[in-house]
Design brief:
7-stranded parallel beta sheet; Ribulose 1,5 Bisphosphate Carboxylase/Oxygenase; about 240 residues
Amino acid sequence: MVIHGLEQERVLGDDQQAYSVWVGHDTCITHMALIHGPAYVGNECFIGFRSTVFNAQVGHGCIVMMHALIQDVEISPSKYVPSGAVITTQQAANRLPDANESDRTFSHHVVEINQALRAGYRCANDGICATPLQNSASSNGSSNGARAMHQNGQAAHPLQAEIVDIIRQQLRQGNHIGLEFADTRRFKVGSWQSGPTIAIAHESQVLTQVEQFLADHPGDYVRLLSIDPKAKQRQWERLIQKPE
Protein backbone atom coordinates (compact mmCIF):
# COMPACT_ATOMS: atom_id res chain seq x y z
CA MET A 1 0.00 0.00 0.00
CA VAL A 2 1.29 3.47 -0.90
CA ILE A 3 0.05 6.86 0.28
CA HIS A 4 1.61 9.67 -1.74
CA GLY A 5 1.04 13.29 -0.80
CA LEU A 6 1.86 16.47 -2.73
CA GLU A 7 3.26 19.54 -0.99
CA GLN A 8 0.94 22.09 -2.58
CA GLU A 9 -2.36 20.22 -3.07
CA ARG A 10 -4.69 20.01 -0.07
CA VAL A 11 -8.00 18.50 1.09
CA LEU A 12 -9.99 19.40 4.18
CA GLY A 13 -9.79 16.76 6.91
CA ASP A 14 -12.52 16.02 9.42
CA ASP A 15 -10.71 18.24 11.92
CA GLN A 16 -11.14 21.14 9.46
CA GLN A 17 -7.39 21.33 8.83
CA ALA A 18 -5.74 21.11 5.39
CA TYR A 19 -3.94 17.89 4.41
CA SER A 20 -2.42 16.38 1.30
CA VAL A 21 -4.13 13.07 2.14
CA TRP A 22 -6.72 12.35 4.81
CA VAL A 23 -7.63 8.77 5.81
CA GLY A 24 -10.36 8.31 8.41
CA HIS A 25 -10.52 5.94 11.35
CA ASP A 26 -11.25 2.20 10.98
CA THR A 27 -10.49 2.33 7.25
CA CYS A 28 -8.74 -0.63 5.58
CA ILE A 29 -6.37 0.04 2.66
CA THR A 30 -5.20 -3.31 1.31
CA HIS A 31 -1.92 -4.34 -0.29
CA MET A 32 -0.81 -2.67 -3.53
CA ALA A 33 -3.51 0.01 -3.28
CA LEU A 34 -2.48 3.61 -4.02
CA ILE A 35 -3.89 6.73 -2.37
CA HIS A 36 -2.43 9.71 -4.25
CA GLY A 37 -3.06 13.21 -2.97
CA PRO A 38 -4.92 15.35 -2.96
CA ALA A 39 -7.25 12.67 -1.63
CA TYR A 40 -9.81 12.17 1.11
CA VAL A 41 -10.90 8.71 2.31
CA GLY A 42 -13.54 8.68 5.02
CA ASN A 43 -14.14 6.56 8.10
CA GLU A 44 -14.82 2.79 7.92
CA CYS A 45 -13.97 2.52 4.22
CA PHE A 46 -12.43 -0.45 2.42
CA ILE A 47 -9.99 0.10 -0.46
CA GLY A 48 -9.34 -3.15 -2.33
CA PHE A 49 -6.19 -4.66 -3.78
CA ARG A 50 -4.46 -2.62 -6.53
CA SER A 51 -7.13 0.08 -6.47
CA THR A 52 -6.17 3.75 -6.93
CA VAL A 53 -7.71 6.89 -5.44
CA PHE A 54 -6.27 10.04 -7.06
CA ASN A 55 -7.45 13.63 -6.64
CA ALA A 56 -10.74 12.30 -5.29
CA GLN A 57 -12.95 12.09 -2.22
CA VAL A 58 -14.35 8.79 -0.95
CA GLY A 59 -17.10 9.23 1.62
CA HIS A 60 -17.54 7.41 4.92
CA GLY A 61 -18.40 3.72 4.74
CA CYS A 62 -17.58 3.18 1.06
CA ILE A 63 -16.47 -0.24 -0.23
CA VAL A 64 -14.00 -0.16 -3.14
CA MET A 65 -13.14 -3.58 -4.57
CA MET A 66 -10.09 -4.72 -6.57
CA HIS A 67 -8.35 -2.95 -9.49
CA ALA A 68 -10.65 0.08 -9.37
CA LEU A 69 -9.67 3.61 -10.44
CA ILE A 70 -11.25 6.59 -8.71
CA GLN A 71 -10.06 9.93 -10.06
CA ASP A 72 -11.28 13.57 -10.05
CA VAL A 73 -14.63 12.73 -8.41
CA GLU A 74 -16.49 12.83 -5.09
CA ILE A 75 -18.13 9.57 -4.02
CA SER A 76 -21.01 9.85 -1.58
CA PRO A 77 -20.93 7.91 1.71
CA SER A 78 -21.77 4.18 1.83
CA LYS A 79 -21.33 3.52 -1.92
CA TYR A 80 -20.03 0.34 -3.55
CA VAL A 81 -17.36 0.43 -6.29
CA PRO A 82 -17.09 -2.95 -8.07
CA SER A 83 -13.83 -4.60 -9.11
CA GLY A 84 -12.30 -3.11 -12.25
CA ALA A 85 -14.52 -0.02 -12.22
CA VAL A 86 -13.15 3.20 -13.73
CA ILE A 87 -14.81 6.16 -12.02
CA THR A 88 -13.42 9.33 -13.59
CA THR A 89 -16.58 11.40 -14.10
CA GLN A 90 -18.98 12.70 -11.50
CA GLN A 91 -21.88 11.17 -13.44
CA ALA A 92 -20.32 7.71 -13.01
CA ALA A 93 -19.75 8.38 -9.32
CA ASN A 94 -23.38 9.45 -8.86
CA ARG A 95 -24.62 6.17 -10.41
CA LEU A 96 -22.75 3.92 -7.98
CA PRO A 97 -24.97 1.57 -5.93
CA ASP A 98 -25.15 1.54 -2.16
CA ALA A 99 -22.95 -0.95 -0.31
CA ASN A 100 -25.03 -3.78 1.19
CA GLU A 101 -24.54 -5.88 4.30
CA SER A 102 -22.69 -8.70 2.52
CA ASP A 103 -20.21 -6.12 1.18
CA ARG A 104 -19.54 -4.93 4.72
CA THR A 105 -19.25 -8.50 5.99
CA PHE A 106 -16.53 -9.15 3.42
CA SER A 107 -14.56 -5.99 4.29
CA HIS A 108 -14.79 -6.73 8.01
CA HIS A 109 -13.56 -10.27 7.34
CA VAL A 110 -10.48 -8.92 5.57
CA VAL A 111 -9.79 -6.48 8.41
CA GLU A 112 -10.01 -9.26 11.00
CA ILE A 113 -7.63 -11.47 9.00
CA ASN A 114 -5.11 -8.62 8.79
CA GLN A 115 -5.41 -7.92 12.51
CA ALA A 116 -4.78 -11.60 13.27
CA LEU A 117 -1.73 -11.61 10.98
CA ARG A 118 -0.34 -8.51 12.66
CA ALA A 119 -0.79 -10.07 16.09
CA GLY A 120 0.89 -13.25 14.86
CA TYR A 121 3.90 -11.33 13.56
CA ARG A 122 4.30 -9.58 16.91
CA CYS A 123 4.13 -12.88 18.76
CA ALA A 124 6.38 -14.83 16.42
CA ASN A 125 9.28 -14.76 18.89
CA ASP A 126 7.26 -14.58 22.08
CA GLY A 127 5.11 -17.60 22.93
CA ILE A 128 3.90 -15.95 26.13
CA CYS A 129 1.67 -13.54 24.22
CA ALA A 130 -0.12 -16.37 22.36
CA THR A 131 -2.43 -17.17 25.30
CA PRO A 132 -4.10 -13.74 25.55
CA LEU A 133 -4.50 -13.69 21.78
CA GLN A 134 -6.27 -17.05 21.85
CA ASN A 135 -8.47 -15.90 24.73
CA SER A 136 -9.33 -12.75 22.82
CA ALA A 137 -10.26 -14.74 19.73
CA SER A 138 -12.46 -17.14 21.69
CA SER A 139 -14.34 -14.25 23.31
CA ASN A 140 -14.86 -12.39 20.03
CA GLY A 141 -18.59 -12.22 19.33
CA SER A 142 -18.28 -11.90 15.56
CA SER A 143 -18.97 -14.76 13.18
CA ASN A 144 -15.37 -14.67 11.96
CA GLY A 145 -14.03 -14.79 15.52
CA ALA A 146 -16.19 -17.82 16.15
CA ARG A 147 -14.39 -19.61 13.34
CA ALA A 148 -11.04 -19.33 15.14
CA MET A 149 -11.41 -22.86 16.56
CA HIS A 150 -13.60 -25.73 15.37
CA GLN A 151 -15.30 -28.48 17.28
CA ASN A 152 -12.57 -31.01 16.55
CA GLY A 153 -10.05 -28.78 18.30
CA GLN A 154 -8.09 -27.89 15.18
CA ALA A 155 -7.33 -24.28 14.46
CA ALA A 156 -9.09 -22.81 11.46
CA HIS A 157 -6.95 -21.73 8.52
CA PRO A 158 -7.82 -18.07 7.78
CA LEU A 159 -8.24 -17.60 4.05
CA GLN A 160 -6.19 -15.05 2.20
CA ALA A 161 -8.17 -11.91 1.46
CA GLU A 162 -7.77 -12.46 -2.28
CA ILE A 163 -9.33 -15.93 -2.00
CA VAL A 164 -12.20 -14.57 0.09
CA ASP A 165 -12.91 -12.00 -2.61
CA ILE A 166 -12.80 -14.64 -5.36
CA ILE A 167 -15.25 -16.87 -3.46
CA ARG A 168 -17.52 -13.92 -2.94
CA GLN A 169 -17.52 -13.03 -6.64
CA GLN A 170 -18.24 -16.63 -7.65
CA LEU A 171 -21.19 -16.80 -5.25
CA ARG A 172 -22.56 -13.58 -6.73
CA GLN A 173 -22.45 -15.19 -10.16
CA GLY A 174 -24.55 -18.07 -8.84
CA ASN A 175 -21.72 -20.62 -8.91
CA HIS A 176 -21.08 -23.29 -6.31
CA ILE A 177 -17.77 -23.75 -4.52
CA GLY A 178 -16.06 -27.15 -4.67
CA LEU A 179 -12.93 -28.56 -3.03
CA GLU A 180 -10.39 -31.22 -3.98
CA PHE A 181 -7.34 -32.55 -2.16
CA ALA A 182 -4.25 -34.66 -2.82
CA ASP A 183 -1.29 -35.88 -0.82
CA THR A 184 2.20 -35.26 -2.18
CA ARG A 185 2.30 -38.50 -4.18
CA ARG A 186 -1.09 -37.94 -5.80
CA PHE A 187 -0.30 -34.26 -6.44
CA LYS A 188 2.81 -35.15 -8.45
CA VAL A 189 0.77 -37.30 -10.84
CA GLY A 190 -2.29 -35.02 -10.91
CA SER A 191 -4.57 -37.50 -9.14
CA TRP A 192 -6.94 -35.35 -7.10
CA GLN A 193 -9.53 -36.70 -4.66
CA SER A 194 -12.96 -35.13 -4.55
CA GLY A 195 -14.01 -33.09 -1.58
CA PRO A 196 -17.38 -31.47 -0.90
CA THR A 197 -19.34 -29.25 -3.25
CA ILE A 198 -20.78 -26.42 -1.17
CA ALA A 199 -24.21 -25.83 -2.69
CA ILE A 200 -25.18 -22.85 -0.55
CA ALA A 201 -25.05 -19.14 -1.29
CA HIS A 202 -24.52 -17.71 2.19
CA GLU A 203 -21.00 -16.29 2.15
CA SER A 204 -20.10 -16.77 5.82
CA GLN A 205 -21.18 -20.42 5.76
CA VAL A 206 -19.13 -21.11 2.63
CA LEU A 207 -16.04 -19.48 4.16
CA THR A 208 -16.50 -21.50 7.33
CA GLN A 209 -16.70 -24.78 5.40
CA VAL A 210 -13.65 -23.97 3.29
CA GLU A 211 -11.62 -23.04 6.37
CA GLN A 212 -12.78 -26.23 8.11
CA PHE A 213 -11.71 -28.32 5.12
CA LEU A 214 -8.24 -26.77 5.20
CA ALA A 215 -7.98 -27.46 8.91
CA ASP A 216 -8.99 -31.10 8.31
CA HIS A 217 -6.31 -31.56 5.60
CA PRO A 218 -3.17 -29.87 6.96
CA GLY A 219 -0.82 -32.27 5.13
CA ASP A 220 -2.55 -32.12 1.76
CA TYR A 221 -2.63 -29.93 -1.29
CA VAL A 222 -6.08 -28.34 -1.58
CA ARG A 223 -7.61 -26.61 -4.57
CA LEU A 224 -10.75 -24.56 -4.85
CA LEU A 225 -13.24 -24.99 -7.69
CA SER A 226 -15.97 -22.79 -9.11
CA ILE A 227 -18.82 -24.89 -10.53
CA ASP A 228 -21.69 -23.74 -12.73
CA PRO A 229 -24.66 -25.66 -11.22
CA LYS A 230 -26.74 -25.41 -14.41
CA ALA A 231 -24.11 -26.60 -16.86
CA LYS A 232 -22.48 -28.80 -14.20
CA GLN A 233 -19.10 -27.66 -15.42
CA ARG A 234 -16.03 -26.22 -13.75
CA GLN A 235 -15.54 -22.55 -14.45
CA TRP A 236 -12.32 -21.98 -12.53
CA GLU A 237 -9.87 -23.68 -10.17
CA ARG A 238 -7.15 -22.40 -7.83
CA LEU A 239 -4.57 -24.07 -5.55
CA ILE A 240 -5.14 -22.58 -2.07
CA GLN A 241 -3.02 -24.81 0.18
CA LYS A 242 0.32 -26.58 0.00
CA PRO A 243 1.57 -28.93 2.75
CA GLU A 244 3.64 -27.20 5.41
